[in-house]
Amino acid sequence: MGKRVLVICSSPRRNGNSEILADEFIRGAAEAGHQTEKIRLAEQHIGYCRACYYCETNKACVQQDGVNELLAKLQQADTVVFATPIYFFEMSGQLKVFLDRTMPLYFLSYHFRDVYLLASAAEDADSAMDGAVKGIEGWIDCYEGSRLAGVVRGHGADRPGTVRATGAAEEAYRLGLQS
């Protein structure tokens, strides 16, 4: 049996460029024999972190909006993949809100070690993704034993579907195969 791969898509647009990258990663991971699951944050109701620290004592979030179910999936995953469009040189707000809400995991055991970032942007420069990479690295730093295993930078994807022409979709597929 392969690894459990959880892919978190943060684009509000279904089948947008970052979701194309996610689907290609999933295709590669499935071909490698891994169990995959994709979660679209746009289909979840996720509130902002209240910084109440309920999670420190209770190992779950006080808010009853579905995040606890997502945290259970994240906790059991061997590999975590975040797919995001780049807005204003940073990850989507949906992904940042979700990452803030993962704080209960900090107080629990978790399986994931390899974390991947798949990003798409209209901007042509590789540096367009630097803010998102830094944000994911900061999140990873809070989870001992985990590491940033790979980044796909789908730059120059200015319209839906154009990420395929950048070579990034093929790169996401190859990372999935190697995951």
Question: How would you portray this structure in words?
Answer:
The structure is a single chain. The chain is an alpha/beta fold. It has a single domain, classed as Flavodoxin domain (Rossmann fold). It has six helices and five strands. It has a five-stranded parallel beta sheet with strand order 2-1-3-4-5, with helices on both faces. β4 (114-121), α5 and β5 (147-155) form a beta-alpha-beta unit. α1 (17-31) runs parallel beside α6 (168-178). The longest helix is centred in the N-terminal third of the chain and has 15 residues, at 17-31. The radius of gyration is 15 Å and the shape is globular. The model has no long low-confidence stretch (mean pLDDT 96).
Compact overview of the structure:
The protein has 179 residues and is an alpha/beta fold. It has helices at residues 17-31, 54-58, 67-76, 93-101, 130-141, 168-178, and strands spanning 4-9, 35-40, 79-85, 114-121, 147-155. The chain has one domain (4-178): Flavodoxin domain (Rossmann fold, 3-Layer(aba) Sandwich), CATH 3.40.50.360.
Essential attributes:
6 helices, globular
In helices, the fraction of residues equals 25-40%
Number of domains: 1
C-alpha Rg (nearest Å) = 15 Å
**Major sheet: size, sense and barrel closure?**
5 strands, parallel
Terminal-residue CA separation: 14 Å
CATH fold title: Rossmann fold
Total beta-strand segments: 5
What spatial form do the alpha-carbon principal axes imply? globular
**Proportion of strand residues:** 15-25%
CATH class: Alpha Beta
Instruction: Enumerate how many helices there are, as a single number.
Output: 6
Strand order of the largest sheet: 2-1-3-4-5
Mean pLDDT: 96
**Which stretches are low in confidence, meaning pLDDT under 50 for 5 or more residues running?**
none
* Class based on secondary structure composition and strand pairing: alpha/beta
CATH homologous superfamily (4th level) name = Flavodoxin domain
Order of helices and strands: EHEHHEHEHEH
CATH architectural group: 3-Layer(aba) Sandwich
